[in-house]
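From: lab user (bench 3)
To: helpdesk
Subject: output format question, protein + MGD

Hello, I'm new to running complex predictions and I'm not sure whether the block I got back is the full result or only part of it. Here's what I submitted:
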Amino acid sequence: MAKTKDQDVPGVKAYDGPAGGWGALGAVARAIKDQMAIAEDTRALLRMNQPAGFDCPGCAWPDPKHTSSFEFCENGAKAVSWETTSKRTTPEFFVAHTVAELWTWSDYALEDEGRLTHPMAYDRATDRYLPVSWDDAFRRIGETLQGYDDPDVVEFYTSGRTSNEAAFLYQIFVREYGTNNFPDCSNMCHEATSVGLPVSIGVGKGTVTLEDFDLCDAIFCIGHNPGTNHPRMLTTLREAAKRGVPIVVFNPLRERGLERFAAPQSPLEMLTLGSTPIASAYHQVKVGGDVAVFKGMMKALLAADAAAIAAGGDSLLDRAFIAEHTTGFKALAADLETVSWEVIEAQSGLPRAAIESAAQVYAAAKNVIICYGMGLTQHLHGTSNVQQLANLLLLRGNIGRPGAGICPLRGHSNVQGDRTVGITEIPSDGLLNAIQQIFGFDPPRGKGHNAVESIQAICEGRSKAIICLGGNLAVAMSDPEAVFAGMRKLDLAVHIATKLNRSHLLLARESIILPCLGRTEIDIQETGAQSVTVEDSMSMVHASRGTLPPASDQLRSEPAIVAGLALATLPGTKVDWAGLVADYARIRDKIEAVYPDFHDFNARIATPGGFRLTVAASDRKWLTPSGKANFLVCAGVEEDPRASGAGALRLTTIRSHDQYNTTIYGLNDRYRGITGRRDVIFLNQQDLAALGLSHGDRIDIETVAEGEDRPRVLHGMTAVAHDIAAGSAAAYYPEANGLVALGQYDERSGTPAYKSIPVTIRRAA
Ligand SMILES: Nc1nc2c(c(=O)[nH]1)N[C@H]1C(S)=C(S)[C@@H](COP(=O)(O)OP(=O)(O)OC[C@H]3O[C@@H](n4cnc5c(=O)[nH]c(N)nc54)[C@H](O)[C@@H]3O)O[C@H]1N2
Ligand SMILES: Nc1nc2c(c(=O)[nH]1)N[C@H]1C(S)=C(S)[C@@H](COP(=O)(O)OP(=O)(O)OC[C@H]3O[C@@H](n4cnc5c(=O)[nH]c(N)nc54)[C@H](O)[C@@H]3O)O[C@H]1N2
Ligand SMILES: [Mo]
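Helpdesk reply: Thanks, we reran it on our side. This is the complete output you should expect:
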């Protein structure tokens, strides 16, 4: 007999608890124990995110202004204990294991060996990484880099944990070397925001501050999972919910953190096993159906507005704002006329009434904040998603006034700052001119490679070497099979990292691992202990200072490693690398010189909480060519026609509660009821039945191909009946990355379409 949702499938059992609560406390205790973290670590956790402490590497959600007490966060605690672990990946470890053997290990097992302790270089004769001195490592890298006539054959990747100071030095080094090849984790993340919003509102960042959440009258949460990925946001959402602020969610999956939250700081909720309901309305939009939702909401709003005016009432639009501050309203209205409700319903998977009710909540609230994450950006039409969302806000003047605005949840804790201080493949003339004036060399003017382009260049043999400042690019990128093959053809691969991961095992002719300090660790340079700075999702810049002894006395800081690379690569350098690294305040002086918005940088980070960078749109200054905010039209509402064919489902890829991107902390996903495994595909019960399948069946999942080079199949997964929109499926990232072809990305932003993969599903052979 077919199994139903409630029957036993190993490792699958619905979780009834709220987000947070005792479940979270227990998980923290286990995370600390698993990493054998010592008492000092717990103390470090307590100092986390306080003025004198370090910035939590867990996420980019801002800190409340006047926190004096430790803000509890389960996943922040996991991120910190994973870094402060007492486990070590030593030279002895590398002697004991060939790279061929390590390749067979899981991603979890590789990182679980703990912190890297020594610079290591690959030795082909023994198939092992062997220790190398820092000087030798730099010399070898410098020689290879100097050997290229064309600097554009080298790729310089950045992952978003890197501090402003390290990122700034890195871009100066790379530009002095002569290329703008800056593939960046942001290219796989919020690039649709960075590309889409400047056209809409003149800045590629969010416009709200944390204080705006105290003043808003409605919040929309679209395509993000705060309970797991920005857990400190739950405190903010809880306060808003308690104030009676409607919180409207659009998400294909029912995510526990958006349903109810028990604040571990609340003795009442903890002792009574109570919790606070979060979402006032939860709309399970079909994967990839968001443009349809936004167009539907705007259509409903315009219809209601016309009705209100016809009845002699006030307009529901902010017409004064539209007239004074925007262009393109007529074209938008005309586009909305052409989209039928039938199409909107089919694409979004939601009834018209649901979308109309969301539009009503939107229209009834004076101040609205819309938050969003990867559920919107990682689509073929990610940029359109973001721009249609901006349209919706502009219709009621919800940008540039207190309590209202757009709130992209950034990913890595400093991904936004890295971009701000110059990690970009398309630098503005202003930036390049400032660099030229301040550092005295001629930076390259051509466009460089983003992440997908860098991989394409590597796969086609046009790029010869890669330097990675953190991250795990080969595993994070789509189409690992192609990426792995490309990486193995390189002359040189250098990884600046805290822990071993699969990218390090993709051997180039010469492969070098350079171990660095993490953010939790004390960073001593010539003038003493140093602080670094980071920028959060709300453009707040603040200092972070490590408090723990380094994992090994061989570790160097990221700024010091960048300086070492620069000195070995650029014999005629115009930059005083040693002087800058001796005192990071001098790096900040240079940042300030290049970016005037950082004025009085060193003084302003001395105040607790730091300072906010200017976000022009927050003050209704529109840095667009028209000088106004722009309503933008996108054609149609269809995400990917291949996903609408007979039997096709739209697969999205998501993070479990026990992972940080490619770092897998454990095999559980508590809120989704998964224990000890990740080989599952979440499916709607109706879809399962229609396919003649049952909960617990072993299935194969294949990408619907159209002119693709080879079939993409994930074999032997287990079907899990889940509360997910019909027509949609979900699997874990990065296991499912092989289903995404390298060529499947948003053409405007280059963001891979990780969140809407057309697939078919069948019983495993
Ligand atoms: N603990 C932890 N924290 C993290 C990370 C981590 O891995 N672990 N990663 C960091 C990084 S780099 C990032 S970018 C952020 C990511 O934070 P999120 O954006 O929250 O990340 P995802 O897990 O990718 O989840 C996206 C959410 O979108 C929903 N979704 C999927 N497809 C669609 C769709 O088509 N439409 C809509 N409306 N929703 C959809 C999913 O159900 C899921 O709830 O988190 C950061 N913080
Ligand atoms: N299918 C699918 N693919 C995705 C996504 C998705 O949702 N679905 N999300 C995409 C997104 S949003 C992102 S941001 C990318 C993430 O891509 P990356 O940023 O490249 O990947 P991470 O897994 O965050 O990198 C983990 C590694 O960073 C190193 N590390 C950790 N801390 C530090 C540090 O302080 N310094 C240095 N130098 N190294 C450190 C460790 O060695 C660790 O192994 O993945 C993308 N890929
Ligand atoms: Mo991200």
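A quick orientation on your result: The chain has a mean pLDDT of 93. Let us know if anything else is unclear.
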